[in-house]
Amino acid sequence: MTTSDLNKTPHDVLDQVFGYSNFRLSQEEVISHVLRGEDCLVLMPTGAGKSLCYQVPALCLDGLSIVVSPLIALMADQVQALRAAGVHAAALNSSMPSEEQGQVMAAARRGELKLLYLAPERLLLEGTKEFLRTLPISLLAVDEAHCVSAWGHDFRPEYLRISEIRDLLGPVPCIALTATADEPTRKEIIEKLRLRGAHSFVTGFDRPNIQYRIALKDRGREQLLSFLKAEHPRDAGIVYCISRKSVEQTAAFLKGNGFHALPYHAGLPAEERNANQRRFLDEEGVVVVATIAFGMGIDKSNVRFVAHLDLPKSIEAYYQETGRAGRDGLASTAWMVYGLNDIARQRMMIEQSDASDDKKSLEHRKLNALLGLCETSSCRRAVLLNYFGGEAAETCGNCDTCLVPVQTWEGTVEAQQALSCVYRTGERFGVQYLTEVLRGETSERMERLGHDKLKVFGLGTSHSKDEWTSIFRQLVASGHATVLLDSYGGLALTEKSRSVLKGQTPVWFRSDVLAPRSKKKRPSSGTSLNTQFTSKENELWETLRSTRLKLAKASHVPPYVIFHDATLKEMTQLKPRTLDELRQVSGVGDKKLERYGREFLEAIETVLSTSD
Q1: Which backbone phi and psi does 67 adopt, to 5 degrees?
Q2: d(C-alpha 172, C-alpha 61), whole Å
Q3: Which of 1, 24, 113, 159 ranks highest by number of CB atoms within 10 Å?
Q4: Beta strand segments in 227-319, E
Q5: How far apart are alpha carbons 354 and 300 in whole angstroms?
Q6: pTM as predicted
Q7: How confident is the model over 347-364, as pLDDT tens digits?
Q8: 311, 313, 319, 325 alpha-carbon torsion, rounded to 10°
Q9: Is-contact 10 33, C-beta < 8 A?
Q10: Would you say 16 and 592 are in contact if contact means Cβ atoms under 8 Å apart?
Q11: What is the rounded distance in angstroms from the CA atom of residue 132 to the CA atom of residue 63?
């Protein structure tokens, strides 16, 4: 689409280029705002269509739109998807041969491009600035704008200098977009980018298609394997681990159990990392096991699950990482297991960092909020949305605590016994030893230390070892006890524990301490599309996927660039037999209909003719 296609309305562009009949959330309002030449900040959940908020006005405006994007891989995905829809878009980055860079710049000067993607580092080069001065720029879009925030977990210092480009470009509108930003971060984005008028469009954080599931860790890899075999045996997904060693071991474990699993972490050779990422994007059913080094630049729409084998550092990190599932809007799962060791490890990482005391205090508060999400007996989605200042119903019906409601029990006496045991043994022993004291289990060590003579010795025989472990875990998670950093998991009291020991503050525990959740019916995400189809539709679905994969390989693009799973699902259900009928399927625009329509109609005809 070039300048010859101007004078199209936003609805024309949405329908003819992208194949959608209606805007979602506040997309239309944002686009109208930008087309009036006004700045704005857009906060939309991942998968809600943030990109359309700048891509549609870019195709309605005269001139070239500049898009600032943090990662080369993310730019490449966006450009491939736009080109597949018939849009003249390109990226300019250091990974491209100089000849190709020259071709892109020449095309921009000739007015043949509508969108040009640049990383902030490239954008700020003097040569790039000189180049931009020669172009008719109509819009500046800053994607992943939370990178502007010095307190954000993806902080990029170069983002702070984007305001220099604003001065260079003059009075062109600027739109900043993100899926992850609390109120302080949003204010910082507006300030650092100098957004005029500071109008914010905050459409919420809810991802209703994602089912949130969090469980206690008990042989985590085996738990993961059971989850994948039961619910995602052939699906693409991401498994996050905290260390490189765990990544390698988990990938090998899954591969040994029949899954197409690949490792990804910063310690791998760059060629291997890039190859594994490329296979994840280009092939079907690949599971990437990764550290947090993987994911920010991934725009794969049909990731059906994101699993955490270790606790992330904050709700922001958890939300962003789980948000990589289900970008196409279809049912997906966010699954996590965690335990006391995860809490201790995260606390230690915070304290051993080089951050300031203020930053450490902030990180501890963020971790506490995440632990609250893990330990809640109420709706997890409500806790998640409330954290970001959003509104949520009391129950969502699509998280584990809603599907299998959790009961709570008043455990002030048990809390006092546990905390008293920590104090009387000297605030230096770990959970295993403290449990032995409470259960009255003698040993040579205990007799030598005299702990078998303590008042707390044998007070907790009515609870099992596992139950006491869970009680201690919840006390640490709630801040009534802390893990010592200079010990091997030793516990100490906190200021918060004083009121519990004095009987001034009641303590409630999740009932799974006494009745393990594993004995209850396990919620199912129902994310396997095959379970939603008839046998004939299953055959058609697999045929359409094969057709998409064949066309993707021929075009050297990921399958989801051809069509998203949501589009294939609608084809499976509507079973179009003509080009006009296929054009009515959401996600089928004019150019894609022209390029791929007949192949998909032939695939549909092949399957349906056997039953007609």
Answers
A1: -120, 120
A2: 11
A3: 159
A4: 237-240, 261-264, 287-290, 305-308
A5: 35
A6: 0.80
A7: 888 888 888 888 888 888
A8: -50
A9: no
A10: no
A11: 12
CA–CA separation, 44 and 31 (whole Å) = 14
Interatomic CA distance for residues 23 and 8, integer angstroms:
16
Tens-digit pLDDT profile for residues 544-591:
999 999 999 999 999 999 999 999 999 999 999 999 999 999 999 999
**Residue 340 exposure: Cα atoms within 13 Å on the Cβ side:** 23
Looking from the CA of 590 toward its CB, the CA atoms found within 13 Å total 9
Alpha helices (H) in 398-460, listed in sequence order: 400-403, 412-424, 431-438, 444-449
pLDDT higher than 60, residue 440: yes
Lowest mean pLDDT among 177-186, 534-543, 561-570: 177-186
More confident residue, 342 or 511: 342
The answer to whether 593 and 567 are in contact (CB under 8 A) is no
Report the sign of the C-alpha dihedral through residues 439, 441, 447, 449, in that order. Answer: negative
Helix ranges (DSSP H) in 442-533:
444-449, 465-477, 497-501
Give the rounded percent of residues in the chain with a pLDDT score beyond 90.
61
Cα–Cα nearest to 439, from 419, 467, 462, 411 = 462
Q: What is the pLDDT of residue 154?
A: 58
- Using an 8 Å Cβ cutoff, are 200 and 181 in contact? no
Q: pLDDT band for position 377 (50/70/90)?
A: confident
AA letter at 59: L
